[in-house]
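Two folds, back to back.
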Amino acid sequence: MESLALFVGILLLVLILSGPLAIGLTFVKTTKQSSKILLRVLICLFSAIGIGLGVMLLLQGIAIGAKLMAIFAIAASAFALKREFKSK
C-alpha cells in the first residue's frame, strides 16, 4: 500500500509542476535554431503530460481538490502552448 501512495504522490507532483514548468520555459530566449527546437519540444512534452494527467484525473471519480488541481494543470499547460505558438 505504501508503494501505491508513493505512486499517487509522484503522479500529483508531476501534475502540479508540469504546467508551471512549461510556462517557465516559454520565458527562455534563445538565438540558435537548434536550441529553439529543443525548447519547443520540451514545452510540448511538459504540456502534453500536464494535459494528459489532468484529463485523466478529471474523468475519474475523485475528490474536488484533485479535480481543481487537474483543472489548474490543464489551464497552465494550455497557456504555455498558447504563449509558445502564438502568431508573432
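---
second:
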Amino acid sequence: MLDVFTQYLNLSTAEVETLLSFSLQDLLNSPAIQQKLNSLNINLLQQSLPTAKTVLADKLPPFYDWLQNELGVERVPDSPNHTTQWVVNFLKKQESLMRLVELHRPVPSPAIERSIPRLVGLFESVEDAQVRQEWQKAIAALCLVLAVDAREQAQSRQAVALFC
C-alpha cells in the first residue's frame, strides 16, 4: 500500500507514513494532502469520465467479488453504478470526502489497505497515459483519506475494547 502512495502521489515513504499516522481531521487540514487534492487535473478527469465509467463498469464487479470472497467484506455494492455516480458527483463538487469516508466506515482497516493497490490498478488498462495516471493519482489520493480514517477507527475500537 505504501508503494501505491509513493508512486502515484509522488510522496516519500516517510511522508506517507507520517500522513497515515494523522487523524482524519489532521490529514484533511494538512497542506500536503490539500496540495495533492488541488493538483488533480479536474478538467482532464471530467473529460475522461466516459473512459472511467467504462473501466469501472468492467472492473468493479470482479473487484467487489474479490473484496467479498477473499477479504470477507460483508457489504459490497451490487453493481458499479453507485460508485460511478459518486465519482461523477465528486468531480462536479456534489459529493464530499466525508461522505466517501462515511460510506466506507464499515470496511475493516486491513481490507481497505489490502484493496488499495488493486483498486488503483483498475485503470492500468487505460491506453492514454495521461488519463491513466490522473485517474490513478485521484484514486490514490481518495484511498489515502480512506486508509487514514480506517486506521483511526481501528485505534478507537481498540481503545474502547481496552476500557471495557
